[in-house]
Amino acid sequence: MSGLTVEEQIKSMMIESGAWLQGHFRLTSGRHSGNYMQCAMMLRYPKKAAFAGAELAKLLRPLEPDFIVSPALGGLIIGHEVARALDVPFLFCEREAGAMRLRRFPAPEGKKFVVVEDVITTGGSLKETAVHVASLGCRWVGSACIVDRSGGDNVIGPSLISLMKISFPTYEESECPLCASLGTPPVKPGSRDLSK
C-alpha cells in the first residue's frame, strides 16, 4: 500500500476485512445509523493490528507514557499493540457493577498513561477508564483510537489522537429513516448489552 497515507491504509484495511459494515444498526449510544465500524474484524489479522499499533505508537511517543490502558473489550488488541510498539506495560479496565475498574492489576501510582480504544463515537468508555485510573494516582497524558467517528463531538476533547476520522449520520430511534424505509429493527453488532 505504498504511496497511501496512513488514514487511507486504515480505511482500506477496514473495508477489506469487513470491519466497515453497512445496513441498519443500533449504536452503543442507542442512536441508529446506516454504518458501523467493528474494528475487531480488522484486528483479528495480526499484521493489520501490528500496523495500526505501530502507527499510533509513533504519534504517542512524544507523550512518553509509562503504560497504556484500554477499556475491555474493544481496546484490548489495539492497546496491547500500542504498548508493544512503545515497549511499555499494558493494563485494561473491565466493567464491574456497571463501572470501569482496574481489577487485575495494581495501579502504577505517579506514572503517566495513555488510554487507547479501537473506535470512538462519544468517547464515554475511554473517558470513564481514564478518570478511574487517574483516581488511583496515575497521570492521564493522552487518548488515542484507530477510528474517530465522533465528528469532533466527543467527551475527550481536542487532544484525541486517531489514525482515521469519519462521521456518519445518526438518528434518534423515533426519527430514524432506516426504521421507516426498511421496516426491520436495527442490529447491535458491538459488545455492550444495552438492555441493562
UniProtKB/TrEMBL annotation:
Does this UniProt record's set of keywords contain ATP-binding? no
What's a single GO BP term from this record?
pyrimidine nucleobase biosynthetic process
EC numbers on record: 2.4.2.10
Among the GO molecular function terms of this UniProt record, one is: magnesium ion binding
Specify the pathway. Answer: Pyrimidine metabolism; UMP biosynthesis via de novo pathway; UMP from orotate: step 1/2
Question: Which residues participate in 5-phospho-alpha-D-ribose 1-diphosphate binding?
Answer: 117-125
Domain Phosphoribosyltransferase, which positions? Answer: 63-151
Q: Which CDD domains match?
A: PRTases_typeI
The protein's required cofactor(s) are namely: Mg(2+)
Q: What class of enzyme is it?
A: transferase
Which keywords, in A-to-Z order, does the entry hold?
Glycosyltransferase, Magnesium, Pyrimidine biosynthesis, Transferase
Give the binding site residues for orotate. 121, 149
Stored NCBIfam families: pyrE_Therm
Described by its record, this protein's role is as follows:
Catalyzes the transfer of a ribosyl phosphate group from 5-phosphoribose 1-diphosphate to orotate, leading to the formation of orotidine monophosphate (OMP).
Give the UniProt family note.
Answer: Belongs to the purine/pyrimidine phosphoribosyltransferase family. PyrE subfamily.
Record-given protein name: Orotate phosphoribosyltransferase
Question: Which organism is the protein's source?
Answer: Jonquetella anthropi DSM 22815
Provide the taxonomic classification: Bacteria, Thermotogati, Synergistota, Synergistia, Synergistales
Gene field: pyrE
